[in-house]
Amino acid sequence: MDDFDAPRDETRTSTDESTDEPPSSPSSTRSEIASGADEPPVNGDAQTIEEMLLEFDHQDGLIRDRSLLDPNHIVSEERIVGRDRQLKEVTKMLRVALGDNRPPNLFLYGPSGTGKSLITKAVCKNISTICETRDIRFGTIEVNCQDLDTLGVAVYELASRAAEEAGVEVDVPKHGVATKEKWDELYRIVNENFDSAVFVLDELDMLVGRRDKQEPAFSRLLYQLSRAGANNDLTAHVSVVAISNDTKMMESVGSRALSSFTPEDVHFDDYDANQLQLILRRRRDAFYDDVLDEDVIPLAAAFAAQTHGDARKAIDLIRVAGELAEREGDERVREGHVREAQDKVEKNRVLEVVRGISTQKKLCLYATAAVAAETDDESARSTTGYRVYQFLTDAIDAEQYHQETYVNKMKEMTTYSLVDFERRSHGPSSGMFLEFQFGERPETILETLREDSRIDTVSPDEVSSVVKAQVRNEN
Ligand SMILES: Nc1ncnc2c1ncn2[C@@H]1O[C@H](COP(=O)(O)OP(=O)(O)OP(=O)(O)O)[C@@H](O)[C@H]1O
Q1: Are strands 432-438 and 379-381 parallel, antiparallel or unpaired?
Q2: Does ligand 1 come within 6 angstroms of the Cβ of 115?
Q3: Does one domain contain both 129 and 249?
Q4: Is 174 assigned a ligand-binding role in the annotation?
Q5: 74 part of a folded domain
Q6: Closest ligand 1 atom to the C-alpha of 275?
Q7: Is 421 found in the same domain as 336?
Q8: CA–centroid distance, residue 311 to ligand 1 (Å)
Q9: Is 212 found in the same domain as 154?
């Protein structure tokens, strides 16, 4: 190993020396207890908690800089790969903030983990640095809309992010006041503290809001924010960057919002395995030198490319592989750790999604994944999936939806990037169906869903034979 050898060897020595037992060492504590007349004999091999903690403390690590493996960390420009066009476009549009003009609004769209947030944050960070030298008060007000359920909550979140960026307090309560008051507070904070500000609304399509409203909450938010600039509620120069995985999000934006928001579109496409390898290679210094086996990066990149070229997944894979190797006390990160990590990362992602969905949605997903698991190209037709869904609901005596509702439930699942669909037809004279493609291995989805005790009562073999019969019928 390189120049990092020294400190790591030093730690090793100090661990070894600890067995020389200074009076207060954990071992002496243990022997003192063991020699106590009334105490039961202590297992000679057992370690005290303190010993185990100290051992962990001194254990050689493999990861040198965890921040490079943190998805929220804004990496420096030299580490950004394959996004020259998007960097140029976003920079060109937002640099207007450096002068005395309002930058245009932007809509950044593409699959998850393709660099939308990274590019936005990197450009805003650079603008902010230049603005400091020019005495322009520039702010980046960023919210992730994933967990915001109503417009009121979203506006409060924007106000508190603006306050945080400006280093001031929010002067309105989170609950129990009208949304109008939260808007006014947001305007006050922005107007008093910034000359120019960019609102970054990440995963905006997730801000659906109350179902009783005709227009989704994200559409109302875009309308109000872009109107506020035009009618002087916001005196600072404000631009809105809307980010979404859903390429069709703008179709659900109402016409009045669309006419005031009018964004410039920037598309982000999937990475291929080579780009993912490059992204990982430019972060290999996250690990100590020479601790990554040669095939670790290509394998992690290949796994991530298999789903949809998601850089977050590629980075997660090498981080989890490194952590597994560290936990096992291995001196290197090996191919086997990446395979183990792949299993873990996939399960976590699926778990995250399925944890929050209703039993009915789980049944729809289970039926469809069971079909995909039996087909060569891991796809499932909605017609076949529905028949398996009917079998499942009968088997556990659950309410049974019509096929149209089953299809709608599955379509809703596309927002989590777990599944995608295409409209297909059996032929010119027969009906249409949807073909579902999974973003993760269908087997992982099935395994995770079986953790639900109701679903687990149905035998997987039985489901598999029903699916086989249905797939045979469809051909
Ligand atoms: N071109 C790239 N070069 C280097 N790292 C990248 C690149 N694209 C993405 N990453 C890294 O991948 C991770 C995910 O990226 P980012 O959050 O920008 O994706 P995203 O498209 O915004 O995803 P989501 O839609 O899920 O929010 C981050 O750690 C980011 O640093």
Answers
A1: antiparallel
A2: yes
A3: yes
A4: no
A5: no
A6: 1
A7: no
A8: 6
A9: yes
Beta-carbon contacts of residue 302 (< 8 Å; ≥ 6 apart): 273
Whichever domain contains 342, its CATH number is 1.10.8.60
- Which of the listed residues 74, 84, 90, 114 should we mutate to test ligand 1's pocket, taking the one with most ligand atoms within 8 A of CB? 114
Per the structure, the count of domains in the chain is: 4
Domain annotation covers residue 95: yes
Per-residue pLDDT for the chain (475 aa), expressed as one digit of tens each?
333 333 333 333 333 333 333 333 333 333 333 333 444 445 556 777 776 666 555 556 899 999 999 988 999 999 999 999 999 999 999 998 888 788 999 999 988 899 999 999 999 999 999 999 999 999 999 999 987 889 999 999 999 999 999 999 999 999 999 999 999 999 999 999 999 999 999 999 888 877 666 788 999 999 999 889 878 899 999 999 999 987 778 888 888 888 888 899 999 999 999 999 999 999 999 999 999 999 999 999 999 998 778 899 999 999 999 999 999 999 999 999 999 999 888 888 788 788 778 889 999 999 999 999 998 888 999 999 999 999 999 999 999 999 999 998 898 887 676 788 888 776 655 567 889 988 778 998 999 899 888 999 999 999 999 999 988 887 6
Classify the complex by whether its ipTM is higher than 0.85, answering yes or no.
yes
The protein residue with its alpha carbon nearest to ligand 1, atom 16, reads 115
| Same structural domain, 255 and 314 | no
The first and second tokens of residue 179, run together, are 């949304």
Q: From CA 56, how far away is CA 419, in angstroms rounded?
A: 40
Structure tokens at 364: 């729809």
Q: What is the CA radius of gyration of the chain?
A: 27
The answer to pTM > 0.90 is: no
366, 350 in Cβ contact below 8 A?
A: no
Domain of 145 in residue numbering reads as 83-267
Does the Cβ of 189 fall within 6 Å of ligand 1?
A: no
With the most atoms of ligand 1 within 8 angstroms of its CB, the residue from 108, 117, 201, 274 to mutate is 117
Statement to judge: residues 337 and 364 lie in one domain: no
